[in-house]
UniProtKB/TrEMBL annotation:
GO function term, MF aspect, one: DNA binding
Xref: PROSITE patterns: HTH_CROC1
SMART domains, per database record: HTH_XRE
Listed Pfam families: HTH_31, MLTR_LBD
Region forming the signal peptide: none
Coiled-coil boundaries: none
Record-given protein name: Helix-turn-helix transcriptional regulator
Length: 277
């Protein structure tokens, strides 16, 4: 049972020790019993060598002697201890550091998330990654915005479509606010993934091709809109006022599930007239 204020240094010490002791020396090419190992797992000096730090540093960490690893040291410890993504995030949290990018962002929807997007019909829904690449969508979303399936995969990006696609350029009644919110989200994503080459290429393309994007990007607004209101002009059914909600899957925190619903009865009637219905 946890009571009172959590001692971060003590929790970091215990976490590092338990993870060290859970490792099998044979997985590292070390003998299972060298000088009659008295404790399970790796020795402190072995972890120190793998992490590129001194044994004394590991000892002081495991004794909760007030050390706070830097982001670089936390990364080396995570690799040395072979931590999974959740354990790595926990270590960085205890070290009060921000983790660097891990792996490549998803470029395809997990099957379970793709099914969820389809199951959300008749509400328009789609799944995007942190840079607004559209990974999955249902028929209602395609009818509401644009036929994503007819586009080359490289062009299935929400920001790119909003700025550069002829149909969507004129769809939003309050276009500047929508673009401003999207750019603020993109800047927040860029701060978390500065090494994402595809994201950097997207930003460079938009800066080069769209003056509005360049102007708003220079304002350095950083914001993520998890819910809100948009009004669209649809060529077939007229004006539609929408409420939106953005959800983040726990297993895929860099992905966004966007769901639209009608904001009023007239808009619901317009949604019901979409060809996909």
């Amino acid at each position: 049972m946890i009571t009172g204020t959590v001692d971060i240094a003590r929790e970091l010490a215990v976490f590092l020790r338990t993870r060290r002791e859970s490792l099998d020396p044979r997985d590292f090419g070390l003998p299972a019993r060298r000088q009659a190992r008295r404790t399970p797992g790796l020795r402190r000096e072995e972890v120190a060598e793998l992490a590129g730090v001194s044994t004394d540093y590991i000892v002081r960490l495991e004794q909760a002697r007030g050390l706070r690893p830097s982001a670089a040291v936390a990364e080396m410890l995570a690799r040395a201890l072979r931590l999974g993504p959740e354990e790595r995030a926990y270590l960085f949290g205890l070290a009060q550091q921000r983790p660097r990018d891990v792996g490549e962002p998803a470029t395809a929807a997990a099957p379970s998330l793709a099914r969820l997007v389809a199951d959300l019909s008749p509400r328009p829904a789609m799944l995007m990654n942190h840079r607004y690449d559209i990974l999955a969508w249902n028929g209602e979303m395609a009818e509401l915005l644009v036929d994503f399936g007819a586009l080359p995969p490289a062009e299935r990006n929400g920001i790119r479509l909003c700025l550069l696609h002829p149909q969507l350029q004129e769809s939003y009644v309050d276009r500047e606010r929508v673009v401003r919110d999207g750019i603020a989200h993109l800047r927040a994503a860029w701060s978390r993934h500065p090494g994402d080459e595809a994201l950097n290429a997207l930003i460079a393309e938009c800066l080069d091709r769209d003056r509005e994007f360049a102007r708003l990007w220079a304002e350095r607004d950083v914001r993520i809109s998890g819910r809100g209101h948009k009004v669209l002009r649809h060529p077939a059914v007229g004006v539609i006022a929408l409420q939106f909600e953005v959800l983040m899957p726990l297993q895929d925190p860099d992905q966004r599930l966007l769901i639209y619903r009608a904001a009023d009865e007239e808009s619901q009637a317009a949604l019901d007239r979409l060809p996909s219905r």
